[in-house]
């Protein structure tokens, strides 16, 4: 039992260090968090965003975006934060595989025992998708939307 516990504990500690949480982001950007309105602070605490929030507030609520896109139009410049996610899509296919073994007998030649034949295999492919977009104008949220995960 102890070896399992000794292997599990470091993995849990590493996982905790790698994950950014609302609480850790609030500490990192304490000044920005403390300047939020009570309404925006309550939304950030719940992991939600609202129109009119600052970039810091969105960062605290949702974390770092995977992509940042800048654009400009006749109405002015915009910054879009794109949040992505992924899932594993399973698929089954026929492949060929060797079944058997090689035998080595000292000075004797290699012995071949086995056959090639069709094998039903199952594999997973990671599929990424955009799960949310936040559009900023003049550093404030103009609009945002969440998108559903594709069917799988």
**Poorly predicted tracts of residues:** 1-17
Helix content: 25-40%
Mean pLDDT, nearest integer?
Answer: 83
Q: Strands across the major sheet, in which order? A: 1-2-3-4
Q: Quick one: how many beta strands?
A: 4
Which structural category fits the helices and strands?
A: alpha+beta
How far is the first residue's CA from the last residue's CA?
Answer: 38 Å
Counting H and I runs of at least 4 residues, what is the number of helices? 5
Largest sheet: 4 strands, antiparallel
Assess the beta-strand content as a share of residues.
over 45%
The succession of helices and strands, N to C, reads: HHHHHEEEE
In angstroms, what is the radius of gyration? 26 Å
Write structural notes for this entry.
- With 152 residues, the chain is an alpha+beta fold.
- It contains five helices and four strands, in the order αααααββββ.
- Strands 1-2-3-4 form a four-stranded antiparallel beta sheet, with no helix packed on it.
- A hairpin with a 2-residue loop joins strand 1 (67-73) and strand 2 (76-103).
- Helix 2 packs antiparallel against helix 5 (55-62) and helix 4 (38-45) packs parallel to helix 5 (55-62).
- The longest helix has 17 residues, at 2-18.
Briefly summarize what is shown:
The chain is of the alpha+beta class and 152 residues long. The protein has helices at 2-18, 22-28, 30-34, 38-45, 55-62, and strands at 67-73, 76-103, 111-137, 140-146.
Give keywords.
5 helices; four-stranded antiparallel beta sheet; alpha+beta; disordered N terminus; 152 residues; elongated; single chain
